[in-house]
Write a structure and sequence with these properties.
11 helices; alpha/beta; about 300 residues; Bact_polysacc_biosynth/exp; Rossmann fold; globular; P-loop_NTPase; 7-stranded mixed beta sheet
């Protein structure tokens, strides 16, 4: 296994994925820097726990006039986190996931402050739950006090972010990439979930990968992040082995979360996906659809228990 497996791991979804797959050789070969992990990240420098993810001072962007109302019933139907609902197992798991990512982002800030605030969520193959995980991660991260999240639907062939939130589609990333006259901020949809906005995929194009590979992509990402230093961008991309945009987006991401479907995703697919995502130096696995044995560790019930007398 990788370099963290000699230590006792706590058991988050990221850590449990790390215990199953061994990517030590591939990941070490990428860079002379300390080995990047495909699991729970370890600080590569002295930890700075008190440092915020974004600067303390910032200029507020002009608030949009319209606020889109997220369908809470649809969130429940889709098994997603519902803001304001009682804390359960899912909320606790994604609290741990986002904490790993935010700690790593603080470390990455010292090298590349822009990429530190970009996260790519993908999977090796379809139906592994990457959109489900991207949505839950975005909702969980938006609950942080000093973060503004933009969830970007970059699964151009099968966009589903807006649908799962119960929101209407509109102009999005592909439209802005194709037409330089469109202001990216006019396409960002502010939701009634505090600190969460979404950017639709946009109008489908046969040239989606080429548009994404253009210099304009970096300019758009820089513009989004410069508009508000609190912003964190989360990209929901197509499966790595099914469509090429994920490999292109990896070059813009500070961290990549590769979703692993428990008992279904095979190691050979993951190794191939990791190789295609080589543009990102920090790849972590996220275990999805875990089946818990009776009596096994499971978050959530603690919040509903009364203190024993």
């Amino acid at each position: 296994m990788n370099d963290v497996t000699s230590r006792k791991l706590g058991g988050s979804l990221i850590e449990r994925a790390a215990q199953i797959y061994d990517f030590n050789a591939e990941l070490r070969a990428r860079s002379p820097q300390p080995p990047v992990t495909a699991s729970a990240p370890l600080p590569r420098v002295a930890p700075v726990a008190e440092a915020p993810l974004v600067p303390d001072s910032y200029a507020e962007v002009s608030p949009p006039g319209d606020v889109a109302v997220v369908d809470r019933a649809m969130l429940t139907t889709n098994g997603l986190l519902v803001p304001g609902a009682p804390v359960g197992a899912l909320a606790e798991e994604f609290r741990l996931v986002k904490r790993h990512l935010m700690v790593t982002a603080r470390t990455l800030r010292q090298k590349d402050a822009t990429r530190a605030r970009t996260i790519l969520v993908c999977s090796a193959k379809p139906n592994d739950g990457k959109t489900y995980c991207a949505l839950n991660l975005a909702i969980s991260m938006a609950a942080e006090r000093e973060v503004e999240v933009i969830l970007i639907d970059a699964d151009f062939a099968k966009p589903d972010v807006m649908n799962r939130l119960g929101l209407a589609d509109g102009l999005g990333l592909l439209d802005v990439l194709a037409d330089p006259t469109i202001d990216i901020e006019t396409c960002v949809v502010r939701t009634d979930i505090p600190q969460l906005s979404v950017l639709p995929a946009g109008t489908k194009s046969h040239d989606d990968t080429e548009l994404l590979g253009s210099a304009r992509t970096a300019a758009i990402i820089s513009a989004l992040l410069a508009a508000d230093p609190r912003r964190v961008l989360i990209f929901d991309s197509p499966p790595v082995l099914a469509a090429s945009p994920a490999a292109v987006l990896a070059h813009h991401a500070g961290q990549t979360v590769l979703v692993v479907r428990a008992d279904r995703t095979v190691e050979s697919d993951l190794r191939e996906a990791v190789a295609l995502l080589s543009g990102c130096e920090d790849i972590q696995l996220l275990l999805n659809a875990v089946t818990y044995a009776p009596g096994g560790r499971r978050f959530g019930s603690y919040y509903g228990q009364e203190d024993s007398k």
